UniProtKB/TrEMBL annotation:
Residues 150-298 form the Tc1-like transposase DDE domain. The lineage of its organism: Eukaryota, Metazoa, Chordata, Craniata, Vertebrata. PANTHER family: SI:DKEY-77F5.3, TRANSPOSABLE ELEMENT-RELATED. This is Paired domain-containing protein. GO terms for molecular function: DNA binding; sigma factor activity.
Length: 347
């Protein structure tokens, strides 16, 4: 027999009001379009308990104890990569009656532990965190105009087709950037089109296609033909060159060349903390560029490069200014994280 629908609190209150006004139970049932028995038992319960609220039900008893619930929570927090089936298997090894994976997942959700894809971030040693923290403290009071004098540079690879393997972890809502909830990543080869690009003062500079492996000689040529000319064109003599600590960037050939340009008063070179792509706003520009290109569905390498150039020229100054305007917040977020990673979506 199907379970009957319970009367709402409003309906039960209406029954009581109509009864006090002198209506019979049958008249109340007809008026409210409910059964006679529903009216009868509602009034009977009110007479017995003094309230028209439904009696508290015991419900189905939980199949796990408080100690087992705590075990599930602690086990997940100790190893964020344990899956629901693994936690259920570990718990069932000490139980006579096994619990299902769904039960374990419900317990985890009760504790606010949700299964999410782990973000990939470079591995940070203590020395890396200290350098990031020092950099953030040195630049936290820079004005928006000072940030606009920086020529942000980087290389990036774009693929015609491709996918990223996802790693699931279990974390709370505010634990997105917790170290054990991240997937460490390292730079590696691959991709179909590699580019070097830069932007500053609300405008994009050159976008250069790198063919083959980029070595120190190739990067030295980029500095001569693209980086410095772009800095002078976009910013002027007071430009500040930003580049990461890739070995080809810090080679003697490139370092000596940049020192000569600094001595000549052409530019300044910003000291950059290692393992810190999240501090560079051009990373967000690469993501935006990739989204714009993906909408056009590139078919091959040549078509991908054409679409990249087209999208690069369509980047708005308002978007670029927004990237530099967020830099003070980035510095404060790094300081708050004591040099560690921060939640970029909240900056």
């Amino acid at each position: 027999m199907a379970r009957k629908r319970e009367l709402s609190p409003e309906t039960q209150q209406s029954i009581l009001v109509l009864r006090n006004e002198g209506y019979s139970m049958r008249e109340i049932a007809k008026k409210l379009k409910i059964s006679y028995n529903g009216v009868y038992y509602s009034l009977q319960r009110t007479a017995q308990t003094g309230s028209n609220q439904s009696r508290k039900r015991s419900g189905r008893p939980r199949c796990t104890t408080k100690q087992e619930d705590k075990y599930i929570r602690v086990s997940s927090l100790r190893n964020r990569r344990l899956t629901g089936p693994q936690l259920a298997s570990s718990l069932n090894s000490t139980r006579k009656t096994p619990v299902s994976t769904s039960t374990v997942k419900r317990r985890l959700r009760d504790f606010g532990l949700q299964g999410r894809v782990a973000k990939k971030k470079p591995y940070l040693r203590l020395a890396n965190k200290r350098k990031r923290l020092r950099w953030a403290k040195e630049h936290r009071h820079w004005t928006e105009e000072e940030w606009k004098k920086v020529l942000w540079t980087d290389e990036s690879k774009f693929e015609v087709f491709g996918s990223q393997r996802r790693t699931f972890v279990r974390r709370r809502t505010n634990e997105k950037m917790l170290e054990e909830c991240l997937t460490p990543s390292v730079k590696h080869g691959g991709g179909n089109v590699m580019v070097w690009g830069c932007f500053g003062a609300g405008k994009v500079g050159d976008l250069y296609r790198v063919k083959g492996i980029l070595n120190k000689e190739g990067y030295h040529s980029i500095l001569q033909r693209h980086a410095i000319p772009s800095g002078q064109r976009l910013i002027g003599a007071n430009s500040v060159l930003q580049q990461d600590n890739d070995p080809k960037h810090t080679s003697k050939l490139c370092k000596n060349y940049l020192q000569q340009k600094q001595a000549a008063g052409i530019l300044l070179v910003m000291e950059w903390p290692a393992q810190s792509p999240d501090l560079n706003p051009i990373e967000l520009l690469w993501e935006q560029l990739d989204r714009m290109v993906r909408q056009k569905c590139p078919s091959n390498q040549s078509n991908l490069w054409e679409l990249l150039l087209e999208a690069w020229g369509a980047i708005s100054p308002a978007y670029l200014n927004k990237l530099t305007a967020r830099m003070p917040k980035v510095c404060n977020a790094v300081i708050a994280a004591n040099g560690g990673f921060f939640d970029e979506s909240k900056v």
